[in-house]
User: What shape does this take?
Amino acid sequence: MHLGFSYIGLIFLIMLMIPNLYWTKNQPKDYEKYENKILLLFERAGEVLVTCLLLIFSDFNIQGITAWMIWLIAAFVLMIMYELYWIRYFKSEKTMKDFYSSIMGIPVAGATLPCCLIAIYGRNPMLFVSTIILGVGHIGIHLNHRKEL
Assistant: This one.
């Protein structure tokens, strides 16, 4: 692991944050009443850790063309699917059912798509653990909300 700015990490964060910022003004009706405080704590801690770690390790930057880049390509494919999920949500009626829909058979796609592949590509165990912390909170919240529907 090498300290240094990661432009790939920045690209991933931008792809994650833009739809989430727009979502703050387009939340499904009654979203707040479904919150679980413990899962929310995991989610917030994971968000802070992932954000910081994606930016401070240069290992996520492209180091040349190798077979290992398949992880980066796979991560970008999932990020594109994540963006498509958001486009579909923003064009919908913005109900809880729309928010927790699947895409291409992947359940609660807004929570599950952008999690661990970039950590594998960067060979960064700290980011991998951080994405698990984020995933426990984020996916747990989404699964609980979907169950309530």
The mean pLDDT is 83. The first helix runs from residue 7 to 23. The two ends are 43 Å apart (CA to CA).
